[in-house]
Amino acid sequence: MRIINPSFALQPQLAAANRSDDRAPVDWSKDPIAIISNSKANAQALLEGLKGLMGDFRPTDNIDYLYKNSAARPAPPELIDQVAKNYRGAILALAD
Amino acid sequence: MSDPAEQEFIDLGDMDADAFNEYAAEQGWSDGFPLIPPTEDKVARFVETCRGDNEPFPAMSPRQVLPTLPAIAANAVMAGCRAEYFPVVVAAVRAVLNPDYNLHGTLATTHPCAPMLMVNGPIRQELGINCGSNCFGQGKRANATIGRALQLTLLNVGGAKPGTMDRSTQGSPAKYTFCFGENEEDSPWAPYHVRRGFDASDNVITALPAEPPHNINDHGSTTGLGILQTVAGTISQTGANVIYGKAPYLIAFGPEHAATLKRDGWDVEAVQEKLYNLATVHVSRVSEDNRHNYDEREQFPVNDLYYLTRSPADIQIAVAGGPGKHSAYIPTFGMTEACSVRLPAR
Question: Taking an 8 Å Cβ-Cβ cutoff, which residues of chain A contact chain B?
Answer without folding.
Answer: 1-12, 15, 41, 70-74, 94, 96
